[in-house]
Amino acid sequence: PAHPDPKLRHQISVISLSSLSDVAAAQRALEAKLGWVADPLYFGDYPKAMRERLGSRLPAFSPEQKRILVNSTDFFALSHFSSYVVSDQPTPKGARPPSPPAFDDDLQVRRHATPGAAKNVLGEDIAPFGMYKLTKWVQSRYEPKGGIVITANGLPTRETKAEAAKRDTARVCYLKLYLRQLARAMRDGVDVRGYFANSLIDQFEWAEGSKARTGLVYVDHATLARVPKGSASFYGKTAQSGAFSLAHAECNASRAQTTRFKLEA
Protein backbone atom coordinates (compact mmCIF):
# COMPACT_ATOMS: atom_id res chain seq x y z
CA PRO A 1 0.00 0.00 0.00
CA ALA A 2 1.11 3.57 -0.70
CA HIS A 3 2.68 5.42 2.20
CA PRO A 4 1.28 8.92 2.86
CA ASP A 5 4.77 10.48 2.84
CA PRO A 6 5.81 10.61 -0.87
CA LYS A 7 9.55 10.62 0.00
CA LEU A 8 9.21 7.53 2.17
CA ARG A 9 6.94 5.89 -0.39
CA HIS A 10 9.68 6.29 -3.02
CA GLN A 11 12.29 4.91 -0.63
CA ILE A 12 10.17 1.84 0.16
CA SER A 13 9.57 1.13 -3.52
CA VAL A 14 13.27 1.41 -4.35
CA ILE A 15 14.24 -0.95 -1.53
CA SER A 16 11.61 -3.46 -2.55
CA LEU A 17 12.46 -3.46 -6.25
CA SER A 18 16.21 -3.69 -5.68
CA SER A 19 16.14 -6.37 -3.02
CA LEU A 20 13.44 -8.88 -3.97
CA SER A 21 15.60 -10.52 -6.63
CA ASP A 22 18.51 -10.68 -4.19
CA VAL A 23 16.29 -12.29 -1.55
CA ALA A 24 15.33 -14.92 -4.11
CA ALA A 25 19.00 -15.40 -4.98
CA ALA A 26 19.85 -15.95 -1.32
CA GLN A 27 17.10 -18.56 -1.09
CA ARG A 28 18.47 -20.35 -4.18
CA ALA A 29 21.96 -20.34 -2.70
CA LEU A 30 20.73 -21.78 0.61
CA GLU A 31 18.68 -24.44 -1.14
CA ALA A 32 21.64 -25.48 -3.26
CA LYS A 33 24.38 -25.34 -0.66
CA LEU A 34 22.42 -26.93 2.20
CA GLY A 35 19.24 -28.25 0.62
CA TRP A 36 21.22 -30.26 -1.93
CA VAL A 37 22.06 -32.64 0.92
CA ALA A 38 19.13 -32.12 3.29
CA ASP A 39 16.10 -31.91 0.97
CA PRO A 40 16.31 -35.54 -0.23
CA LEU A 41 16.45 -36.70 3.41
CA TYR A 42 13.34 -34.76 4.40
CA PHE A 43 11.37 -34.35 1.16
CA GLY A 44 12.66 -37.13 -1.11
CA ASP A 45 14.08 -34.92 -3.85
CA TYR A 46 16.52 -32.13 -4.61
CA PRO A 47 15.36 -28.51 -4.18
CA LYS A 48 13.08 -27.12 -6.86
CA ALA A 49 15.53 -24.32 -7.68
CA MET A 50 18.21 -26.89 -8.48
CA ARG A 51 15.85 -29.02 -10.55
CA GLU A 52 14.84 -25.99 -12.60
CA ARG A 53 18.42 -24.95 -13.33
CA LEU A 54 20.30 -28.24 -13.59
CA GLY A 55 17.63 -30.41 -15.19
CA SER A 56 18.89 -33.80 -16.28
CA ARG A 57 22.33 -33.14 -14.79
CA LEU A 58 20.77 -34.08 -11.45
CA PRO A 59 20.00 -37.77 -10.90
CA ALA A 60 16.42 -38.82 -10.27
CA PHE A 61 15.23 -40.76 -7.23
CA SER A 62 13.08 -43.84 -7.69
CA PRO A 63 9.93 -44.19 -5.57
CA GLU A 64 11.69 -46.82 -3.47
CA GLN A 65 14.71 -44.57 -2.91
CA LYS A 66 12.44 -41.74 -1.83
CA ARG A 67 10.66 -44.05 0.60
CA ILE A 68 13.97 -45.04 2.18
CA LEU A 69 15.30 -41.47 2.34
CA VAL A 70 12.39 -39.48 3.71
CA ASN A 71 12.51 -39.07 7.51
CA SER A 72 15.54 -41.36 7.74
CA THR A 73 17.52 -39.02 10.00
CA ASP A 74 17.72 -39.09 13.79
CA PHE A 75 18.62 -35.38 14.00
CA PHE A 76 19.82 -32.53 11.78
CA ALA A 77 23.62 -32.33 11.87
CA LEU A 78 24.79 -28.83 10.97
CA SER A 79 28.35 -27.53 10.68
CA HIS A 80 28.71 -23.76 10.38
CA PHE A 81 31.75 -21.48 10.33
CA SER A 82 31.10 -18.46 8.16
CA SER A 83 28.57 -16.51 6.11
CA TYR A 84 28.69 -14.61 2.86
CA VAL A 85 26.26 -12.39 1.00
CA VAL A 86 24.84 -13.11 -2.46
CA SER A 87 23.03 -11.03 -5.02
CA ASP A 88 21.05 -11.94 -8.10
CA GLN A 89 23.11 -12.24 -11.27
CA PRO A 90 20.95 -13.19 -14.26
CA THR A 91 22.67 -14.83 -17.19
CA PRO A 92 23.05 -12.27 -20.01
CA LYS A 93 20.98 -13.00 -23.09
CA GLY A 94 22.93 -14.95 -25.66
CA ALA A 95 25.73 -15.81 -23.25
CA ARG A 96 27.24 -19.25 -23.55
CA PRO A 97 27.15 -21.42 -20.44
CA PRO A 98 30.58 -21.90 -18.85
CA SER A 99 32.47 -25.09 -19.55
CA PRO A 100 32.78 -26.90 -17.27
CA PRO A 101 29.60 -25.68 -15.53
CA ALA A 102 30.17 -23.31 -12.60
CA PHE A 103 28.06 -23.65 -9.46
CA ASP A 104 27.29 -19.95 -8.95
CA ASP A 105 26.56 -19.46 -12.64
CA ASP A 106 24.04 -22.29 -12.51
CA LEU A 107 22.34 -20.61 -9.57
CA GLN A 108 22.60 -17.14 -11.14
CA VAL A 109 24.11 -15.67 -8.00
CA ARG A 110 27.13 -13.55 -7.23
CA ARG A 111 29.02 -13.80 -3.94
CA HIS A 112 30.03 -10.83 -1.81
CA ALA A 113 31.91 -10.39 1.43
CA THR A 114 29.75 -9.74 4.49
CA PRO A 115 29.87 -5.94 5.02
CA GLY A 116 32.09 -5.02 7.96
CA ALA A 117 33.03 -8.60 8.86
CA ALA A 118 36.57 -9.53 9.87
CA LYS A 119 38.26 -12.44 8.05
CA ASN A 120 39.70 -15.61 9.49
CA VAL A 121 43.03 -17.01 8.26
CA LEU A 122 41.24 -18.91 5.47
CA GLY A 123 39.71 -15.69 4.16
CA GLU A 124 36.22 -16.52 5.43
CA ASP A 125 33.96 -13.89 6.97
CA ILE A 126 33.38 -14.00 10.73
CA ALA A 127 29.67 -13.17 10.94
CA PRO A 128 28.09 -14.63 14.11
CA PHE A 129 24.54 -13.59 13.17
CA GLY A 130 24.76 -16.26 10.45
CA MET A 131 24.39 -18.91 13.16
CA TYR A 132 21.07 -17.39 14.21
CA LYS A 133 19.72 -16.99 10.69
CA LEU A 134 20.83 -20.41 9.47
CA THR A 135 19.43 -22.37 12.40
CA LYS A 136 16.16 -20.45 12.10
CA TRP A 137 16.03 -21.36 8.39
CA VAL A 138 16.74 -25.04 9.07
CA GLN A 139 14.08 -25.19 11.79
CA SER A 140 11.48 -23.52 9.58
CA ARG A 141 12.21 -25.59 6.47
CA TYR A 142 12.75 -29.06 7.92
CA GLU A 143 11.34 -29.09 11.48
CA PRO A 144 13.70 -31.97 12.36
CA LYS A 145 12.11 -34.31 14.88
CA GLY A 146 15.41 -34.99 16.60
CA GLY A 147 16.33 -31.33 16.71
CA ILE A 148 19.50 -29.67 15.45
CA VAL A 149 23.00 -30.58 16.59
CA ILE A 150 25.82 -28.18 15.71
CA THR A 151 28.48 -30.73 14.81
CA ALA A 152 31.27 -28.25 14.05
CA ASN A 153 31.83 -24.55 14.70
CA GLY A 154 35.15 -22.86 15.32
CA LEU A 155 37.91 -20.48 14.29
CA PRO A 156 41.00 -21.52 12.30
CA THR A 157 44.21 -19.74 13.32
CA ARG A 158 47.93 -20.02 12.57
CA GLU A 159 49.40 -20.54 16.02
CA THR A 160 53.04 -21.56 15.71
CA LYS A 161 54.01 -21.71 19.40
CA ALA A 162 52.31 -23.32 22.38
CA GLU A 163 52.70 -20.19 24.48
CA ALA A 164 50.85 -18.11 21.89
CA ALA A 165 48.18 -20.79 21.63
CA LYS A 166 47.46 -20.52 25.37
CA ARG A 167 46.24 -16.96 24.75
CA ASP A 168 43.81 -17.65 21.90
CA THR A 169 41.44 -14.84 22.84
CA ALA A 170 40.23 -14.56 19.25
CA ARG A 171 38.91 -18.13 19.40
CA VAL A 172 37.27 -17.54 22.77
CA CYS A 173 35.53 -14.48 21.36
CA TYR A 174 34.47 -16.37 18.26
CA LEU A 175 32.90 -19.12 20.37
CA LYS A 176 31.19 -16.63 22.67
CA LEU A 177 29.68 -14.63 19.83
CA TYR A 178 28.45 -17.69 17.94
CA LEU A 179 27.09 -19.35 21.07
CA ARG A 180 25.25 -16.15 21.94
CA GLN A 181 23.52 -16.22 18.55
CA LEU A 182 22.73 -19.91 19.02
CA ALA A 183 21.15 -19.15 22.40
CA ARG A 184 19.14 -16.37 20.74
CA ALA A 185 17.83 -18.86 18.16
CA MET A 186 16.87 -21.29 20.92
CA ARG A 187 14.94 -18.56 22.72
CA ASP A 188 13.10 -17.99 19.44
CA GLY A 189 12.00 -21.61 19.26
CA VAL A 190 14.81 -23.36 17.38
CA ASP A 191 15.16 -26.92 18.71
CA VAL A 192 18.92 -27.21 19.35
CA ARG A 193 19.96 -30.40 21.14
CA GLY A 194 23.76 -30.12 21.12
CA TYR A 195 26.86 -28.16 20.17
CA PHE A 196 30.39 -29.28 19.31
CA ALA A 197 33.33 -26.91 18.95
CA ASN A 198 35.65 -27.66 16.06
CA SER A 199 37.82 -29.31 17.16
CA LEU A 200 39.18 -30.91 20.34
CA ILE A 201 42.79 -30.93 19.06
CA ASP A 202 44.55 -29.28 16.12
CA GLN A 203 43.92 -31.50 13.13
CA PHE A 204 44.56 -31.91 9.41
CA GLU A 205 42.43 -29.21 7.77
CA TRP A 206 41.78 -30.28 4.17
CA ALA A 207 43.87 -28.32 1.63
CA GLU A 208 45.39 -26.25 4.43
CA GLY A 209 46.98 -29.33 5.97
CA SER A 210 48.35 -28.64 9.44
CA LYS A 211 48.80 -24.88 8.89
CA ALA A 212 45.32 -23.85 9.97
CA ARG A 213 44.73 -24.84 13.59
CA THR A 214 41.16 -25.25 14.81
CA GLY A 215 41.61 -27.15 18.05
CA LEU A 216 40.98 -26.25 21.66
CA VAL A 217 44.23 -28.09 22.41
CA TYR A 218 47.52 -27.15 20.72
CA VAL A 219 49.47 -30.01 19.12
CA ASP A 220 53.23 -29.75 18.57
CA HIS A 221 53.59 -31.55 15.25
CA ALA A 222 57.21 -32.43 15.93
CA THR A 223 56.78 -33.98 19.38
CA LEU A 224 52.98 -34.52 19.44
CA ALA A 225 52.92 -32.78 22.83
CA ARG A 226 49.49 -31.32 23.60
CA VAL A 227 48.87 -28.05 25.41
CA PRO A 228 45.34 -26.84 26.32
CA LYS A 229 44.58 -23.39 24.94
CA GLY A 230 42.65 -20.63 26.66
CA SER A 231 39.61 -21.68 24.65
CA ALA A 232 39.79 -25.15 26.21
CA SER A 233 39.44 -23.60 29.67
CA PHE A 234 36.55 -21.40 28.51
CA TYR A 235 34.78 -24.31 26.82
CA GLY A 236 35.16 -26.60 29.81
CA LYS A 237 33.83 -24.03 32.26
CA THR A 238 30.91 -23.22 29.94
CA ALA A 239 30.03 -26.90 29.60
CA GLN A 240 30.02 -27.27 33.39
CA SER A 241 28.10 -24.12 34.24
CA GLY A 242 25.88 -23.76 31.18
CA ALA A 243 26.65 -20.04 30.99
CA PHE A 244 29.37 -17.48 30.27
CA SER A 245 29.83 -13.74 30.53
CA LEU A 246 30.34 -11.40 27.58
CA ALA A 247 31.14 -7.77 28.29
CA HIS A 248 29.83 -5.21 25.80
CA ALA A 249 33.26 -4.27 24.41
CA GLU A 250 35.01 -7.58 25.04
CA CYS A 251 34.89 -8.96 21.51
CA ASN A 252 34.48 -5.89 19.32
CA ALA A 253 35.99 -6.15 15.85
CA SER A 254 39.42 -4.60 15.49
CA ARG A 255 38.29 -2.43 12.60
CA ALA A 256 35.27 -0.27 11.98
CA GLN A 257 32.03 -2.06 11.17
CA THR A 258 29.42 -0.77 8.80
CA THR A 259 26.04 0.23 10.18
CA ARG A 260 24.43 -2.66 8.33
CA PHE A 261 26.67 -5.24 9.97
CA LYS A 262 26.17 -3.71 13.41
CA LEU A 263 22.42 -3.98 13.00
CA GLU A 264 22.64 -7.59 11.84
CA ALA A 265 25.03 -8.63 14.59
Written description of the protein model:
This protein is α/β, with parallel strands linked by helices. It is built from 9 helices and 9 strands. The protein has helices at 6-43, 48-54, 63-69, 103-107, 129-142, 162-165, 169-187, 230-241, 259-264, and strands at residues 76-79, 85-88, 109-112, 118-119, 125-126, 148-152, 192-195, 217-219, 226-228. Strands 1-6-7 form a 3-stranded parallel beta sheet, covered by helices on one side. A two-stranded antiparallel ribbon has the order 2-3. A two-stranded antiparallel sheet has the order 4-5. Strand 4 and strand 5 form a beta hairpin. The longest helix has 38 residues, at 6-43. The two termini are 30 Å apart.
List keywords for this structure.
265 residues, globular, single chain, disordered N terminus, 3-stranded parallel sheet, 12% strand, alpha/beta, 9 strands, two-stranded antiparallel sheet
Question: Topology, pairings included?
Answer:
Blueprint: H1 6-43, H2 48-54, H3 63-69, E1 76-79, E2 85-88, H4 103-107, E3 109-112, E4 118-119, E5 125-126, H5 129-142, E6 148-152, H6 162-165, H7 169-187, E7 192-195, E8 217-219, E9 226-228, H8 230-241, H9 259-264
Parallel strand pairs: 1-6, 6-7
Antiparallel strand pairs: 2-3, 4-5, 8-9
Helix pairs in contact: 5-7, 7-8
